[in-house]
């Protein structure tokens, strides 16, 4: 085992890990951060998506050892003062949450996009979530939810 320091959701964790452990495993099993879901474990479904240094990544494909010194954000880390993030609210308002399994990954992919491009086109939204599979919603409510936050942000001059 090797000791590393992980910065997750603005908090530092000193943790011992095996060199082969993925970020997904460490988040869920060691840090009890359960929003990244264990899906395909091959980078195909996006259920485990987190934001690392501003980019959406599949945590099942990243070795935890590679994350030292990086800023990792999960769904648990996007609330502000106990309030849901506007994207979380939009997912609820637009019916983009059904079974909920893909929701954390979808929100994190959407957030990474909006952080980089606060007013994306519908095609840019679809591209940003193209690595996330949803079997329930048909994607339209998800795209609408992300678009509504983009429109809100653009309207506020952000």
Short characterization:
This protein has 2 domains: 2-75, Ubiquitin-like (UB roll) (Roll), CATH 3.10.20; 86-155, [2Fe-2S]-binding domain (DNA polymerase, domain 1), CATH 1.10.150. Helices cover 34% and strands 16% of the residues. It has 5 helices and 5 strands, in the order ββαβββαααα.
Plain-language structure description:
This protein is of the alpha+beta class and 158 residues long. The protein has two domains: 2-75, Roll (Ubiquitin-like (UB roll)), CATH 3.10.20; 86-155, [2Fe-2S]-binding domain (DNA polymerase, domain 1, Orthogonal Bundle). The chain has helices at residues 23-30, 86-93, 103-116, 122-128, 140-155, and strands at 2-8, 11-17, 49-52, 55-58, 71-73. The chain has a five-stranded mixed beta sheet with strand order 2-1-5-3-4, sandwiched between helices. A hairpin with a 2-residue loop joins strand 3 (49-52) and strand 4 (55-58). Helix 2 (86-93) packs across helix 5 and helix 3 runs parallel beside helix 5 (140-155). The termini are far apart. 40% of the residues are buried.
CA-to-CA gap between the ends? 45 Å
CATH class descriptor of the largest domain: Alpha Beta
How is the CATH topology of the largest domain named?
Ubiquitin-like (UB roll)
Chain-averaged pLDDT: 94
Helical content class: 25-40%
Number of H- or I-type helical stretches:
5
**Main sheet overview:** 5 strands, mixed
Shape: globular
Instruction: Please identify, by name, the CATH architecture of the largest domain.
Output: Roll
N-to-C order of helices and strands: EEHEEEHHHH
Strand count? 5
Uncertain runs: none
CATH superfamily placement of the largest domain:
Beta-grasp domain
The Cα radius of gyration reads 15 Å
> What portion of residues belong to β-strands?
15-25%
| Biggest β-sheet: strands ordered side by side in the sheet | 2-1-5-3-4
How many individual domains? 2
- What class would the helix/strand composition place it in? alpha+beta
């Amino acid at each position: 085992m090797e000791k590393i320091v992980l910065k997750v959701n603005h908090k530092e964790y000193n943790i011992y890990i095996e060199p082969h452990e993925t970020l997904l495993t460490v988040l869920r099993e060691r840090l009890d951060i359960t929003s990244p879901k264990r899906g395909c474990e091959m980078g195909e479904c996006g259920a485990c998506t987190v934001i690392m240094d501003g980019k959406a990544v599949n945590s099942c494909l990243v070795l935890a050892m590679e994350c030292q010194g990086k800023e990792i954000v999960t769904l648990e880390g996007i609330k502000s003062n106990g309030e849901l993030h506007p994207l979380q609210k939009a997912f609820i308002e637009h019916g983009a949450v059904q079974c909920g399994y893909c929701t954390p990954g979808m929100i994190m992919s959407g957030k990474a996009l909006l952080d980089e491009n606060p007013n994306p086109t519908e095609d840019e939204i679809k591209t940003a979530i193209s690595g996330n599979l949803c079997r329930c919603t048909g994607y339209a409510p998800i795209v609408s939810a992300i678009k509504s936050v983009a429109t809100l942000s653009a309207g506020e001059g952000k």
